[in-house]
Amino acid sequence: MTDQMTARIAMVTLDVAEVEPSADFWSALLGWEVAASTDDYAMLTGPDGSPALGLGRTDDFEAPSWPDTGRKQFHLDLAVDDIEAMAGRAVELGARLVDPQPGETWKVLLDPAGHPFCLTDAKNWG
Description:
Elements: E1 11-16, H1 19-30, E2 33-37, E3 41-45, E4 52-57, E5 76-80, H2 83-92, E6 96-97, E7 106-110, E8 116-121
Parallel strand pairs: 1-4, 5-8
Antiparallel strand pairs: 2-3, 3-4, 6-7, 7-8
């Protein structure tokens, strides 16, 4: 362990065009509480010690493209026990599967605002 000061991720915030549909989607998919919500911002909280998820309204929001080889972007990787079942649940909640899928050991979806996220086998993440 180092004696140097470190930081921890407290929250990841995604830009969205509309806060409520994104907050509803992520709350249902992750099982997290919407701790605060306005027309411009929502914060979801998960289990103790986990980073929060923020959703901030941006007037000129443009969903990232997938796959995108020209811009730097990030996406969330979610560890799940059953990829197919969770993909079905995510679609029921408003996500869309990308086509074609880039691999066989994970699924790539887009949330209602167009942010890409991956479902991957929880056994591989400990």
